[in-house]
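Example is below:
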Amino acid sequence: MSDEPNYLKIEIPVEEEKPFVPEQVGPTALRTGADAVKNQAANAAKQVWDSDLRKKATRGVKKGAAAAAGAVAAKGQQVMHDRVVKAAEEQAKQQAEALKTKIRETDWQHEAKEGTAKGLRWLSAQLAKLAERFTPKPTNPEE
């Protein structure tokens, strides 16, 4: 035997693959039965939708909903009005209490003295202006 190894060679021929084409399914008895049931259900639903009973019930529900909405809106408006009035009354009470407290805490004797002093100063200034007007001017120009 020789020192060279013998290798086995396998050849695989390349075959062309055909594209996958799904089978065409024709109408079956099950499919035609399902279509018939679907059509019957659609027709029944259309008849019920177009019926006078459904229209009358829908009108009743709309009227009831409108009446309920109107009642809720009126009640909400009344509650809002009550809250606003209550808040205004509370604010007026707080302001009256603050004014009463300020009146009680004010030192009226000090306020009266301070006001009198300011008034007398003003009167003094006005009298000084009046005195200036009535003061005769010097007749002797040389002095």
